[in-house]
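User: New here, any thoughts?
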Amino acid sequence: MVDLFQRHTGRALSSVVEIACGPGYHAREFARRGILATGLDLRPEMVAFAQDKDAAEGLELDWVIDDMRNFHLETPVDMAFIVFDGIDALLANDDLVRHLQAVGANLAPEGLYLIDLTHPRDCNYEAYGSYRYTGERDGTTVELLWATNQPHFDRITGIASVDVEMRVGLPGGERLIITDTATERMLMPQEIILLADQSGVMKVVDWYGDFDRRIPLDAPQARRMISLLQKRG
């Protein structure tokens, strides 16, 4: 992201906002590198969790609890980004346009917006796919199973209801199972281009197949669909 900003604007990146930041891992990494960083999330619990980690490291970040469809930052930033399919929580075109307009309003001139989504080869109308993640820390194990209900995207709305199961093993032997359902909107490149045009403030300037500008979206080794937008004017 630092490299992309330099290449597209000719300036060094000085400030960012991580949208739908959750625990704010990426915002903190920018702060470690001396870049002014803001984390924005709808959930107060996630922002509180992020602030605790921020304080433990002695980092200085701004944290904002707000809706990504109509947020306001005190000072515009050079670059915004949303990763791990965070934008798929916006289900309607109107919400997506409002979101892009809000991003544009909070970007400095020539500011960039990076959107990271699962590659359409791996998650599409024909097959959603299934995903499993595991982790262990201090004797607690976690297994996250995503898409346990074999979901499919509606071919008209592009929306899927996805069941999620988290299995937690505690040090004393107790096991917990936590279930939830995520409602997601699939976005394809032409939709992103049209929605950016409809926003009136953003435009798509490039595509990548990973967090590496040398990998195009259609490369065999592409793992993500990364769209790079820029503020107009």
The first helix runs from residue 2 to 9. The CA atoms of residues 72 and 106 lie 7 Å apart. The two ends are 21 Å apart (CA to CA). Helices lie at 2-9, 25-32, 44-57, 93-105, 189-199.
